[in-house]
Amino acid sequence: MWGLLLALAAFAPAVGPALGAPRNSVLDLAQPATTQVPSSIPAPNSSLAQLPAETANGTSEQHVRIRIIKKKKVIMKKRKKLTRPTPLVTARPLVTPTPAGALNPAEKQETGCPPLGLESLRVSDSRLEASSSQSFGLGPHRGRLNIQSGLEDGDLYDGAWCAEEQDTDPWFQVDAGHPTRFSGVITQGRNSVWRYDWVTSYKVQFSNDSWTWWGSRNHSSGMDAVFPANSDPETPVLNLLPEPQVARFIRLLPQTWLQGGTPCLRAEILACPVSDPNDLFLEAPAPGSSDPLDFRHHNYKAMRKLMKQVHEQCPNITRVYSIGKSYQGLKLYVMEMSDQPGEHELGEPEVRYVAGMHGNEALGRELLLLLMQFLCHEFLRGNPRVTRLLTEMRIHLLPSMNPDGYEIAYHRGSELVGWAEGRWNNQSIDLNHNFADLNTPLWEAQDDGKVPHIVPNHHLPLPTYYTLPNATVAPETRAVIKWMKRIPFVLSANLHGGELVVSYPFDMTRTPWAARELTPTPDDAVFRWLSTVYAGSNLAMQDTSRRPCHSQDFSVHGNIINGADWHTVPGSMNDFSYLHTNCFEVTVELSCDKFPHENELPQEWENNRDALLTYLEQVRMGIAGVVRDKDTELGIADAVIAVDGINHDVTTAWGGDYWRLLTPGDYMVTASAEGYHSVTRNCRVTFEEGPFPCNFVLTKTPKQRLRELLAAGAKVPPDLRRRLERLRGLKD
């Protein structure tokens, strides 16, 4: 037995403190373990695998039992209530000296192990516990990094875990589910529009059974380490442990917090999986993908390099071009993918995906980079679905509309960028509020009865104020508008992050100053169809066991919502695209986590791969055709396609071809053009794969024919002369 105890004493430091160490000790701030950031952390090793041979051979159960008993006795003996002196409850974090070689907080910090998954919801609510909670809305399930509160104070969706004011020993606990190598902690304060609460320092403890605990120690003093925490509600603060610890449970014990407030925090735990040689715990399947793609985050240089590699691998179906530059001069690169890149083919629709409008919402950027790789690989393999996509449409992928903002977010790192840093462009402009407001002039004209006879219900012109040289319009926005005008896009999706929902126009409420209000477009049925297609194909959105991301449960409405009914967004790209061009566009909120860690990218790709492909295929839904001149048989550009009962028209491209997205049904469709007689015909849209062909042949009016003949210096034909004389007689 003594030999066994000696073996245990030698092993104890690998999984906890020395036997007999007290749970709490005097605050030790001389050398905090939080500011020293090593460049790399060794690969995890199972502490259980390091047991002495005699312990591993059949005596592991006895080893665990003896260790717990010894540890438990010490904790029961030493446990005391901590009395916090008033001076330590302060609005500022505890000031600690920075060891030599520590990185500046503004520099990108390497976090070592990946996040355990509090922010991304991989850690379920049942694995989060706390000593107490002020209310259900401030329970431990709300203690997730970057979680956002509801608008009402004290509702069920508040913005942190908060302990009761009477709780003298508050703690927040996370169950990793199996032995895990913990390497660090990231904390934030409470997200709220009504209160300010955050923790300014905390201790960390570990356990294998949730009963016996040991603390993280400072190397220099041997005392329990006290980690400096937050000085504001939103900035994430990373603390790396002095020494990674292998355990199943981790506890954060707030020591001090904002004066006049309560201990409130949001957290993410950095942890590496370790092997379990005894197979005592069921391991969750590791997230991954079988697709041979580059699953990592790409800064501007790496993104450009990857796009070049895809083009070199598939030169016959790709083209890389730039639509303009950011405020900082970074090019807005687009990957075009088609069997005839570089040219618009008659009858072939143009579709696009746009990502990175908000620079810190990085998942969309990576999904588009993955999509272009996937389409290239699968085309070379002869995948029939991909081959059909690339031969029947022209796909444009803009992975980074706001490269300046992304570089800021990338420099901070996926877990430390917070909720808003990098969102805006370098001029502090939110690009999703920067497009021209065309909703207001349209609705005012509708109220005056001027639509569509005096004011068109489509292709509304830019307001004069928006075209002035001193107008507050970002260069990124101007570049995208020019891009929209140059290419006859039919379908688009704008990829965002921070939620799991698909929102559709209108994004702006019709009632002025209303925060939210259901404001559908005339094409509400089409937009609901498009949104449902993406949401219904997205694996994460279809997971019935998942909890809501923040403060709204969109699953009760099929994970889709009218944008204005969620929150009003004047000047959105979706509304502008619908009112200024032919393009129907929705916003896809891809993930609760705006900037997921690299190790989560394979699963995010699996969640979205089929949805990205299926959404593109919806461009076949509706009718399509060519409007031609009867005499010349040439296509008529800018002909108007109007559908009875839908107060929104589309126009033909320069070759006379058009696409009109419609849900299944029978429609009376009219084609008209200046100088031509209008033609109306019935077009049926079925549930079969389309689009349904609906072509038109228009005849010039006598006036138009006369103008063209006179302009060409030709003689007026007899039939035209007789018709003109007849018209003059009717007029007299």
Broad structural category: alpha+beta
- Count helical runs: 16
First CA to last CA: what distance? 123 Å
Instruction: Kindly estimate the percentage of residues that lie in beta strands according to DSSP.
Output: 15-25%
Quaternary form: single chain
Q: Main sheet, how many strands, which sense, barrel?
A: 8 strands, antiparallel
General shape:
elongated
Percentage of residues in helical conformation: 10-25%
Rg over alpha carbons: 31 Å
Please count the beta strands (DSSP E, at least 2 residues each): 24
Uncertain regions spanning at least 5 consecutive residues:
1-110
What average pLDDT do the residues reach?
85
Concise synopsis of the structure shown:
The protein is 25% helix and 21% strand. By secondary structure, the protein is an alpha+beta fold. The protein starts with a helix and ends with a helix.
Keywords:
single chain; alpha+beta; eight-stranded antiparallel beta sheet; 24 strands; disordered N terminus
Description of the molecule:
The protein has 732 residues and is α+β, with helices and mostly antiparallel strands. It is 25% helix and 21% strand. The chain is built from 16 helices and 24 strands. It has helices at 2-15, 53-56, 60-78, 300-313, 363-381, 384-392, 403-412, 439-447, 464-467, 475-486, 524-537, 563-566, 573-580, 601-617, 702-712, 718-731; strands spanning 128-130, 161-162, 172-188, 199-207, 214-215, 227-228, 237-257, 264-273, 318-325, 331-337, 350-355, 394-398, 489-496, 501-504, 560-562, 584-589, 623-629, 640-643, 646-651, 657-660, 665-672, 679-685, 692-693, 696-698. Strands 1, 2, 3, 4, 5, 6, 7 and 8 form an eight-stranded antiparallel sheet that branches. Strand 14, helix 11 (524-537) and strand 15 (560-562) form a beta-alpha-beta unit. Helix 4 runs parallel beside helix 5, helix 5 (363-381) packs across helix 14 (601-617) and helix 11 (524-537) packs antiparallel against helix 14 (601-617). The longest helix has 19 residues, at 60-78. It is elongated, with a radius of gyration of 31 Å. The N and C termini lie far apart (123 Å).
